[in-house]
Amino acid sequence: MTATPAGGVPLPGAAREGESEPRLGLGASLRPADAPAKTQGTFPYAADLWAEGLLWAAVLRSPHPHARIVSIDTAPAAAMPGVRAVVTHEDVPGAATHGRRVADRPAFARDVVRHHGEPIAAVAADHPDTARLAAAAIAVEYEVLEPVTDPEKAFEAEPIHPDGNLVRHIPLRFGDESVTGEVVVEGLYRIGRQDPAPIGAEAALAVPRTDGGVEIYTASTDPHTDRDLAAACLGLRPEQVKVVVTGVPGATADREDLSVQFPLALLALRTGCPVKLAANREESFLGHAHRHPTLLRYRHHADAEGRLVKVEAQILLDAGAYADDSADALAAAVAFAAGPYVVPHAAVDGWAVRTNNPPSGHMRGEGAMQVCAAYEGQMDKLAAKLGLDPVELRMRNVMATGDLLPTGQTVTCPAPVAELLRAVREAPLPPLPKESPEEEWLLPGGPEGAGDPGAVRRGVGYALGMVHMLGAEGTDEVSTATVKVNGPVATVMCAAVETGQGFSTLARQIVQEVLGIEEVHVVPVDTDQPPAGPGARGRHTWVSGGAVERAAKMVRTQLLQPLAAKFGMSVELLTIADGRITSYDGVLSTTVAEALEGKELWATAQCRPHPTEPLDDTGQGDAFVGLAFAAIRAVVDVDVELGAVRVVEMAVAQDVGRVLNPRQLRARIEAGVTQGVGAALTEHLRVSRGVVRHPDLTAYPLPTALDAPDVRVVKLVEERDVVAPFGAKSVSAVPVVVSPAAVAAAVRAATGRPVNRLPIRPQAAVMTP
């Protein structure tokens, strides 16, 4: 992959000709501190942990998507040599259910199992093979029930949960519902079940404490919530449970549930020994949440010039067996149902329903990705019906700062949507492949593929999309950070987990920028520190980065006040740059190291963005703190006889607010685009009547290095959001949201076929004679 500007134009945030990129601080491509350990294979992940007297755990999971539990006989497992404990719902000492938004998920299935893979029992033994054999020996008698697997039928089906099948309904009404347009297009769209498929499967180690509590070592992205949920189920006070965050081997959704933490903690307390579990790939697929499969019906109204008049939509999210983050995902889907376009009238109904399918939950761009594929498909249909260029149609409708969302909220942040679209339209197109044997690998069939070069058609497609930053609908976003300085070394303490998004590196850069100290260390995260919240939607860049900046500025004041007083001037007249403190008039000039000699300074600060509000009964309200936008042009080659698709290039223009780390930012964009390409072409967790089929990476094809397209960042718009610390915006989610829609548009352009399902099936790309 490449990440280069079009036409040789330097990207914002990059070093221009004749100037060098900063070596330290904001704007520098500072290397992550853990990069050497990760590349050398010495970085400690949870699967690598060990403790004296270690036992191994295994979890028994339901083979049925829906069944009544008649009986559970643990005696065969308990009698096996080497087995130290077997636990079921009867052994849960505290709350029987848990959940991040709604406490509707049992710690262990009690009377009913509601999805394939639901935990029934857990075993601790002296060897991992013994633990797995013992779990398999537990005799469970089931009365198999008819599963509810069609979300459209969930409305009339018997409730699968005491709270009913409906998780949430949002009826959004904006403008005049009776208005119609001169031109109308309709569409039905289906989005599949994408799995986070982490590089490292779930793993954890639980160690009992002498005070009756327990320590849990795991790759959590929200350790304080994990602590509180586990403590409630264990019947302990939160301070009796400590979560220590180990290395996180990637996280796009899979690190935000109690898939292994609670069973391990319970077994550790029961046995008095450390207990560890390292899930295999099948257990990982069955144990964590996935992207919401979604059914979308749309009707777009426009005038004769192509300007949108009204958008009507029905959006149905399959929540799976439990609520999880489905209410949040639905809010994003409904609010962004029309996309980054000006729509004077809208009527959108969104539902999230429980089924006996695998649970759905948080995943990058949840809700926003599904509707983006649908509304961009509608824009292509509208352009074709009006005989307009798809880009021109979009240009006539794009949103800008000051426009209204269909929720009635004014877009107050920078919204350079037109600029982004122009950038990808004007970028040079990649060259056509040569029809020569040495370059046949460029064809969709790959090296020595069965395809005929004469059957390959090239398509170019465009898509625009948006995501919200931070939590929504009244979520109290807050983070706390402490910065300590002892001589030439600074230390940052903040419970913001490094999940690969680069927070640890950003924290170092912030302190370097504010204090001029080169050596900055970030303390490992545990729940003895004040909470910082989950790592999602760019919140750690904004909220946790903001807390670090405020704490560093407080230390800066402590450092400069004595110097300012000595020279009879205010602190504001002193600057720190390149490790030196200087006054405006040059009278004072000293190094930061000299000023810090013999001193120990520290400060703690919080960052809390402005509040939001829940959507009301008509879907109206200021629900979002900020928005981020992107435009992507996809170029694909399609073998119209075989239906094979190769993504040649993805040209990206993105609204980033401010580039804080150029190299890291481009890496995040490339990763987001590649994940989006996977959702567009290959990634779909196959489920038949609620049962996950072949839960492994052979049957779930992820994009490899050969599948990943060239990612060309043609423009990064640095129009700072004045309410965000540093003015920066979320980077990773919006390319995931927009990429699938762009690929689908390009396949439509190549084949003339109506692509209305993701991932795109080969038969959808075949042109019949």
UniProtKB/TrEMBL annotation:
GO molecular function per UniProt: iron ion binding; oxidoreductase activity
Domain Aldehyde oxidase/xanthine dehydrogenase a/b hammerhead residues, every copy: 40-146
Superkingdom assignment: Bacteria
Signal peptide annotation: none
UniProt feature coiled coil, ranges: none
Listed InterPro entries: Ald_Oxase/Xan_DH_a/b, Ald_Oxase/Xan_DH_a/b_sf, Ald_Oxase/xanthine_DH-like, AldOxase/xan_DH_MoCoBD1, AldOxase/xan_DH_MoCoBD2, AldOxase/xan_DH_Mopterin-bd_sf
SMART domains reported for this sequence: Ald_Xan_dh_C
Chain spans, region Disordered: 1-38
Pfam families: Ald_Xan_dh_C, MoCoBD_1, MoCoBD_2
PANTHER family: XANTHINE DEHYDROGENASE (PTHR11908), XANTHINE DEHYDROGENASE SUBUNIT D-RELATED (PTHR11908:SF157)
Protein name (record): Molybdopterin-dependent oxidoreductase
Organism annotation: Streptomyces taklimakanensis
Organism lineage string: Bacteria, Bacillati, Actinomycetota, Actinomycetes, Kitasatosporales
